[in-house]
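Usage

Read records sequentially. Each one opens with the input sequence:
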Amino acid sequence: MRGIIIAHINSDTALRLKQVLLGSGLPVLRVCSSAQEALRRAASLPDGGVVLASFFADMSIAEFRALLNKSFEILLLASGGQELYTHKKGVTTLLLPLNRQEFLQKTRHLLECGSGAVPKRSDHAKELILQAKELLISTGLSEAEAHNQLQKKSMNSGLSMAKVAESIIKEAKI
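and closes with the structure output:
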């Protein structure tokens, strides 16, 4: 079963994270208090995600990523000083303090992507996004600003960029 392993040194924090995820319908398979325990639990599963605290006494983040099955993704809950992990393959960094909506969105993405594969957009979805960006550009935004606005609306609403683009196009037709 595809799901989430929470690995956090603070058991109260780990349980709060678990409650947030379960309350949003995300499957939490196990809560672990050490990196070694999380690796043992992950070894018995084909794939999934690990929500990982930024610090463990028993292992560094780099060591954990190297030992973890490559079909697992990591959501690293990190303080500002650990942004260096943001671009490591299979590691997504979420800086503290947590924003609940962003935490849930990134955790869902963790499960959807699986072994690091980025979900491909259909040609139709690409066309919708392009049309919406063109509409936003016509209001005076740059291409980058239009793209960022689509991404932000997507994250805030929990909808795909294609769905957000579709709503922008519909609004423009009214």
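Summary fields computed downstream for this record:
- Helices lie at 11-23, 35-43, 61-67, 100-113, 123-137, 143-157, 161-173.
- The mean pLDDT is 84.
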